[in-house]
Amino acid sequence: METWDVVVVGGGPAGAATALAARRHGASVLVLDRSDFPRDKVCGDGIAPEALDVLAVLGVDVDALTDGYPAVPRLRLTSPSGRTVERTMHRPAVVVPRAVLDGRVLDAALAAGAAFRRHTVKRVTPGPDGVDVDGVLRAGVLVGADGAESVVRRALGIGPNRPDRLAIAIRGYAPAGEEGVQVITTTDQRWPAYAWSFPIGDGRANVGYGELVSGGATRAGLLEGLHRLLPGVEPTGLRAHRLPLSTGRPRLPDGRVLLAGDAQSLINPMTGEGIFYAVLSGALAGAAAAQGAGAGRAFRSALRARLGVHLAHSSTASWVSRWPRVMDAAFRAAGDDQRVFDDVVALGLADGRLTARTLAAAARRLS
Question: What pTM, to 2 d.p., does this model score?
Answer without folding.
Answer: 0.96
